Structures are given as structure tokens and as C-alpha cells.
Amino acid sequence: MRYQWITTVAGISILLLLGACTNRPPAAESIEDKVARHGFAIGAQVNRVNNFQINSWNMVDRKNAIIFVGASRRYLITTRNPCDGLADTEVLNYSTTAGNLTDKDKLLLRRSPSAGRMESCFIDTIYELEKIRN
Fold first, then answer.
1. Is there a domain that residue 40 lies in?
2. Strands (E) located in 21-105
3. For the chain, how many structural domains are there in total?
4. Over the stretch 62-113, which tens digit does the pLDDT of each residue have?
């Protein structure tokens, strides 16, 4: 009887272990794939963007946003850390000291007009985006 109990426990343990091995989490989507869903490909890294022409933006994920500059230029802004406010904010603000938006500046996000505190998200990198032609 004891041998049968040990065999049953061992069998269940092996099944649980095999089940855990086959249930891998899905692979994380790359930033290139996320940006491609917006119709763009990541181009060269740049150090600055003329901030007086930024006219709109789209969130890519908690660390990335696409900004639209003028009529035809687009850039991917990558932040150093996840920015929860990117999902909730209606207005993308930024703080700059050089007269241009640079990789040394930060995004300032307020989750709602009534929220008092702004979230600061430091910029890590800026990339030019190219429109994908279908």
C-alpha cells in the first residue's frame, strides 16, 4: 500500500512539473513590432527634436511614445523607466532647457486635469521613424 501511494505522488509530481514546463508565457512583443503596428519603422537615433513643432503624439507602451512633428516627421521617444501616465494622460508636456526636446529632457504627464501632481518621465533615447510603405 505504501509503495502504491509513493508511486502515485511521484506520478502526480512529474505531471505537474511537465505541465509547468510546457506553459511558457508568450514571448514579449518587440518595440519594432509595436511601432510597425502604428505604420512606422525605427530609423536613426537622434539627439534633439525642435520642440516648437510637436503637434500630436501616440502611446506605444509604458516606456515609448510616438511624437508627430510638423507635417511629416515622426519620432519614437523612449523613457528610462516605465511611465504609467502615458496610458492615462490627454496632453503630453515636456520640460527642456536647451530650446529643443533632447535625450536629456523629460516628459511631464498629468493623468487628469484635476490631478495635482505631474509624473516626470526622463527621456532615454529619440529615434526617427520612417513610414512603412505597403
1. yes
2. 40-46, 48-49, 54-61, 64-69, 73-79, 93-95, 101-102
3. 1
4. 999 999 988 889 999 999 999 888 887 777 888 887 778 898 999 888 766 6
Smallest CA-to-CA distance from 77 within 62, 97, 98 is with 62
Contact 57, 65 (CB under 8 A): yes
- Whether 1 is covered by a domain: the verdict is no
User: Facing residues of 131 across strands?
Assistant: 40
Residue 7: inside a domain, yes or no?
no
Beta carbons of 42 and 129 less than 8 angstroms apart: yes
How many other C-beta atoms are found inside a 10 Å radius of the C-beta of residue 6? 10
Domain that holds residue 52: 29-131
Cα separations in angstroms, 122 against 70, 74, 97, 105 = 23, 19, 13, 6
Q: Shortest CA distance to 75 belongs to which of 106, 104, 40?
A: 40
DSSP 8-state symbol, 132: P
Return the closest-CA partner of residue 109 out of 69, 48, 59, 39: 59
Q: Tell me the whole-structure pTM to 2 decimals.
A: 0.75
Determine how β-strand 93-95 pairs with β-strand 119-131: unpaired
